[in-house]
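ARCHIVE CARD
Drawer: 12
Card no.: 0347
Subject: one protein chain, sequence and derived structure
Cross-reference: see card 0346
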Amino acid sequence: MLFWRVKPLDKILETAEKKALKRQLGGFQLTLLGIGAIIGTGIFVLTAEAGQKAGPAMMVAFVIAAIVCGLAALAYSELASMVPVSGSAYTYTYGVLGEAVAWVVGWALVLEYAVAAGAVSVGWSGYMNGLLASAGISLPDALKTGPMDGGSFNLLAFLIALVVTGLLVIGTSKSAKVNAVLVLIKIVALTVFIAIAVPAAKDANFQPFFPTGWGSPLGGIGVLGAAASIFFAYVGFDAVSTAAEETRNPNRNIPIGLIGSLLVCTVFYLLVGYGAVGAIGSQPMMNAAGGAIHPGTPELAAACVGSDALVCSKEPLAHVLRVMGFAGVGNAIGLAAALALPSVILMMIYGQTRIFFTMSRDGLLPAFLSRVHPKFHTPHVVTLITGVFVALFAALFPVGILADISNSGTLFAFMAVSAAVLILRRRDPGRRRPFRTPMAWVICPLAIAGCLLLFVNLSMYTIGLFVGWSIVGLVVYALYGYRNSDLGRGLTAAEGGPTVAPEPPFHEGPQA
């Protein structure tokens, strides 16, 4: 059947060995990669938006998003340790739920990674334009933003995406070393912010704590609406699992990277959120009817003219310190953000290329996308194509609702992974599981329910885009992937089918 063309897990591992990436990352590097992807987007870009949706209760939204991510991380850890290859949720779904569902998941992950990379590139350009302006240097307005933001071409966003792409082509280990320095900068900057803002917190700034309530389905406002947006800030732990094929001792190191990075980042998020709210407040801007104005709209931009409110700032942490009278430190925080956000872009593009690489290796995308560079041992073709796409995307579009669009794909993928853990427990209970999800029959259903709760609290517009994107993906699959996949052409046996002889080794570069 079309929707149950399952690729055996043993065959997934065998295929990976034919076109393998070099194993060179340890547990510490993976944790840093996860921290690099997680810390940045939510704190440096989305804090103001979360405040506009939930007010001081955005701290509750951080906790809700972290709990849902933690549940999903436990499911990811089991599958990543069992199937330590590139591809993340796409690969796991292929081995359990079948090819068509795996294709939809892989297609949805484009929203998670490529859209996110473009969004963070735009956020980085905002910080950099501000820093350049403070130094007396200013680009023409037409080159500061894309056409939907009043400009013509966001030059800095375009360039940073290309620079990060070049780093990834050169090599994973080199990228990880640069990322480690950027992670250190972020941690120092956030620690300084916490040390200044937390002691200055005032109880009055937390009142009222729930100005917008819990929210309602498809509304995108309230605590759950904020949690659905903030979820964007935690997707880095998923990117860690895409590095499984390039990890030494993945059975041990993948769970360390997934859960360790999530725990570290959650602590930072709560402390920074408490400091930002407590120091200057974060009450949302309301419309004439008494409801919170949706972020990223002309109405909110008009309401924010001349306002020093946290929810109006494009650089919220630097803004908090400037309002408190620490302008110099605030500028330093802005500089740290400008230096650190490229690590988030790096992990987003990295995750996207590894998923496309794996889909190509399975025949669902053209074979040339899975070529490995003979010198750098990286999938250079798909990296360059993805990087150019992200750069153009960042140059032409605003941040707007990109975070929510990205979340729609992420939440769908997390639900698929959690379901796959339970199905595999029934179908193949004897398979070795180096990491077992504790209380799987409780944790995984809770993860699915949590993801579904956040999904329905995205805006109706965002959910509509996700449905439209999925339909386009199914058309592409029907026209190309269904006929050209290895399973479809009989090059790989489906679950329960006959085994086949391995293909000749891949000769484009040295093998791991």
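Annotation on reverse: The chain has one domain: 25-283+293-484. Confidence is low (pLDDT under 50) at residues 493-512.
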